Amino acid sequence: MTEDFRICTRCVMDTSDPDIIFDENGVCNHCKQAEDRLNSEPYCLPVKEKEKRLIKLVDEIKRSGKNKPYDCIIGLSGGVDSSYVAYKVKELGLRPLAVHLDNGWNSELSVQNIENICTKVNIDLYTWVLDWEEFKDLQLAFLKASTPDSEIPSDNAIFGAIWGTAIKYKVKYILAGYNWASESILPTAWSQGYFDSKYILSIQDAFGKRKLKTFPLINKFQIAFNRKIRKINLVSFLDYLPYNKEEAKKIIIDELNWRDYGKKHCESHYTRIYQEYILPTKFGFDKRKAHFSSLIVAGQMSRDQALSELAKPIYQSEEKIDEDLTYLTNKFGISRKEFEDIMSLPLKSYNDYPHQEDTLFFKIVQKLYGGLRRK
Hints:
The chain is α/β, with parallel strands linked by helices. The protein has helices spanning 29-38, 47-64, 80-91, 108-121, 132-145, 152-168, 180-183, 197-207, 220-228, 245-256, 269-283, 288-297, 303-310, 318-332, 336-343, 360-369; strands at residues 72-75, 96-102, 124-129, 173-176, 233-236. It has a five-stranded parallel sheet with strand order 3-2-1-4-5, sandwiched between helices. α3 (80-91) packs across α10, α5 packs across α8 (197-207) and α11 (269-283) packs across α14 (318-332). It starts with 28 loop residues before the first helix and ends in a 6-residue tail after the last helix.
């Protein structure tokens, strides 16, 4: 740690986020932003009022899906949040179509969890399989771009697949698994450009070898069009529930035979290796800090618990690191030397490449439409 190192007195975010700001009490700007989010509806509503809103929402979804095979779309990664959404929507009598993005990095356990969930709750599954050679080239392009945004291709494709499926089946509701209880904090400097097609294409043009012909690319303008013109509703479904991540985990273990991955987002080999090795090693970003801090502000984890977890090494041994990097490089078809060269490239950021947020058109759309992430 440097002499300038500083950590929030409330959560565990620290100066590894270059944009962090502390007040006179040592509380960071992330805590304050998270509080604003937790004070927004429907998350902040009393339990009884939430129940009323949820009943109304379910009725609206059922009416919108009348005479259709499905009344809502849910994304299903096999993680806690999406698995709990699948459990709850069926419990509420909805008829979801689950959409899963297969980007080539699924763990065997995630495949088993997804199969168990769909069987247990009796829902149809639509798997959107990416062209591996095309997607691999895009992921490598992002690694070569040397920004901390290399999960953007997967995140964008997931939403592209979900929105595309909703349009295909004329479904008016997408019930998303993201939620303020466990995801209220994520520093912009650690990752950005999720729905920025200009940014993604600029990275691919600069460092990739293939054209993106089948990738389900989506941007904020398309999302705005889908929501405002096609009238497709994107709902942060878990915010309508008294959602507690640990309690949800116990329920899906008991009811769906769900098996734990041990850590957040470890259903994907790439996400796990990227978040546990590449981000902290190259950029100094430990996403556990954001995950734990979100839970702290939501009252679902103590600061002492978080500090205790952060004191543990991400990797238990050098052998495990070597095993994971061998898997990664073999999957990408590159040598360990090529990977080390990528890791040693100068650090870059979103602002070093062309992106939509620097265009006048985007600023106008953003002003007219407002936030594009949540309902």
